[in-house]
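Intended use. Records like the one below are meant for learning the mapping from a protein sequence to its folded structure. Do not use them to infer anything beyond what is encoded.
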Amino acid sequence: MDFDLTYEQQAMADTALDVAQKYGPDYWYEKDEQQSFPREFIDEIGELGFFGLPIPEAYGGVGTGLTEMALVMEAMCRGGGGGGPALGYLFGALGAVSILAHGNEAQKQHYLPLVAQGKLMVAFGLSEPDAGTNSLNIRTFAQRHGDDYVINGNKWFNTNFEESGAIMLVTRTTKKEAVKNKAEGISMFLVDLPAKGISASPTPKHGFNYYKSYDLAIEELRVSKNCLMGEEGRGFYNMLGTLNPERILVAAGAIGTGRIAIRHAVDYAKERQVFGQPIGAHQAVQHPLAVAYAKLETAWLAVIKAAAMHDQGKSAKDVGDLANMAKYLSVEASIEAVHSAMQTLGGAGFAKEYHIERWWREVQLFRLAPITQQMTLNYLGEHVLGLPRSY
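Structure written out for the chain above:
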């Protein structure tokens, strides 16, 4: 078993780290205060080809795997942004993964080169007021009219909608009460933006103010049958293919956020003098940071193993088991790391200029999305331990 990175992998991680350090904590502080999209950062990582990592060379990408994407995600978050880079990179990269897996050839030819060049971000329209974790409960409906579909419904928490050139809309094409298996009758559509028939209103949030989230009202949106991704009625099963990569990338972002918080706390603990010596000399300061660091490093092993299993073509079940473990452990470790960092800084940790409070706000989202920690434990209890279904 070899834990060393290849030359190419190390080069990608180093480049991502260099870019992240160029756009350091002060950059993200200003963007958060201004509630402004980090256009400069997104454009630069797009030009470097990071969004094209999972895209084959035939479509203008690099053609690497999820391991490289996880390495890049972690380095960008660790290098200067904390949670800042995570959602920007996640939504760009996952759009490519979904189109590659489920798009028709015309969709691949049109959209993937644009994503690979960093010229297109793809939003994901899944969640609804009555359908969060229970995605089978969606009500947005696409009615077939000849060669078109007419879509009506509502979506919420659509992040980066106004910065995106397309959106993957998850709808029902058969009502839930008309199917025996509730997973049937769900379809995915890839729709260009802006689109007549979709109106958006921003949702004020606790954190990640550089990436706005929106409520969408979809009224009489007419789309061509060519916008359908995959087979009609099989959209739920198509979504499953993106769940494991999403969990692994979020886990990598959480690790990077925890690591930068620990680094800032250690630097502060070396410099801050109390009673004639650095506060870092006290075990009450050292031990929480040491414990958090050990947990981060251990969780990172699960992230890399899960990504490697995905790239090796292991079964979705085996990858999913470890991806859920990696997501749970990484988020818990990151939360502990940022909390310990805030405690190390004391009152300064509460001040925005030291950045810790922003990272503290951001790690809270990781415990809620793309799946809550509790639902992750439900998955492990049922699918790994073999316990009865709990929900």
